Amino acid sequence: MLFHLLNIFREQLESLGFYAYQEVTFRGLLAMITSFLVTFIFGKRIIKWLLSMKIKDVPDFNTKALNECMKNKRNTPTMGGIIILLSIFAGTLLWARLDNPFIRKAMFIMIWFGLLGGVDDWLKLKQKGKTRDGLLTHEKAIFQIAGALLVSLFVYFDLENIPDAPMLWLPFYKQGIYLPVWLFVILAFCYITATSNAVNLTDGMDGLAAGCTAVVAASLAFLCFVASEKMGRGSDMYWAKYLLLPHIPQAGELSVFFASMFGAILGFLWYNCSPAMVFMGDTGSLPLGAAIGYGALVTRNEVLLLIIGGVFMMELFSVMLQVGYFKYTKHKFGKGRRIFECAPLHHHFNLKGWKEEQVVVRFWLIGIICAAIAMLTLKIR
Question: What positions does the entry give for Mg(2+) binding (predicted)?
């Protein structure tokens, strides 16, 4: 909104030599600061409201030892994703170009998956007889599948007329791999479903999912900038062409969105760090996961995001391996066996003797290293 307001006085501002508001880097930084301040200022009030509504977490796991580890989290308010979503909307609406198609679709994704997560959280905590269950598996799957399919179609129709865009791009490889329409949509659909669930699975310790998502959001803000922006004012060279990536016009505006996400998460960590005053719940984890998947799809960095979000991939695959191995051994030997003490992976290390704070900080460090490796591959390409 403020961008469009300033644009009304464009000629007057340019006559004064003020061009900065047109740059996505400048507006991205303002969006980050705005979303951080909104979270910091209104976070405590929203937490008090959640407490008044008795929206409190009730840890109930299949592992007795894990329930013992998590007993101190009982009655901590959840659905804190509301704080993150409001802050992202505030930063984005104020500083992004609202006529940008990528911005509009990013906001749609946050609303769709935020509502899905919110309903799931609400049913877990408020509906009698459904504690820890929330939406039934097929109910949740239907809305996740529908949302993922919409996102996949969004991305394809936005990119179909851009040269080299509807292709699969790999780290270290200088050319894209052709994908037919049906395969592009299927891969994108599976991808969004996986990223939304991966962040959701990681949200199990104070600050863990938030800190790892902040690293990914900062990386995607950079990748969106690289996808569409020139190397400098007056330059004819685009960063994407320099780094042998597809040039995606207008994708740079998503830098403002992801910068706003980064600021909102930093503000949320103020209340979510150990001991947490609030949890994000599915209300925050599902839309955040879907949004980072969308950013990677738009910039054609799906495979690179698997490296950047290495922690999320570890968590997701630990659950898949644990469930698959348990079912296989139960079928073959009559009794299910486990690879890990507990899945997702962060609970395994917790039960192995790591303190919660150690798990969280060490996973953050892994996430930062993964992001650094991913950025390094851009230059190596």
Answer: 200, 282
Could you give the CA distance from residue 256 to residue 93 in angstroms, rounded to a whole number?
Answer: 10
**Within 10 A of 288 (CB to CB), how many other CB atoms are there?**
33
Tokens 């799931």, located at residue: 120
Q: Who contacts 297 (Cβ-Cβ below 8 Å, separation ≥6)? A: 151, 152, 155, 188, 191, 192
Nearest partner of 233 among 9, 93, 26, judged by Cα = 26
CA 203 to chain centre: 12
Query: Total structural domains in the chain?
Result: 1
User: What DSSP designation does 176 have?
Assistant: P
Tens of pLDDT along the chain (381 residues)? 666 666 665 655 555 555 666 789 999 999 999 999 999 999 999 999 998 887 777 666 666 666 666 677 778 898 999 999 999 999 999 999 999 999 999 999 999 999 999 999 888 876 654 445 677 778 888 998 899 999 898 898 988 888 878 889 888 888 888 888 889 989 998 999 999 999 999 998 999 999 999 999 999 999 999 999 887 777 778 888 888 888 999 999 999 999 999 999 999 999 999 889 999 999 999 999 999 999 999 999 999 999 999 999 999 999 999 999 999 998 888 888 889 988 899 989 988 989 999 999 999 999 999 999 999 998 887
Question: Which residue range forms the structural domain that includes residue 230?
Answer: 2-380
For residues 114 and 110, give the distance between their C-alpha atoms in angstroms, rounded to a whole number: 6
62 is in an annotated binding site: no
Q: Known binder of ligand: residue 282? A: yes
What is the residue type of 177? I
- The pair phi, psi for residue 351, each rounded to 5°, is -75, -20
Q: Scan for tokens 């340019």, then name that residue.
A: 14
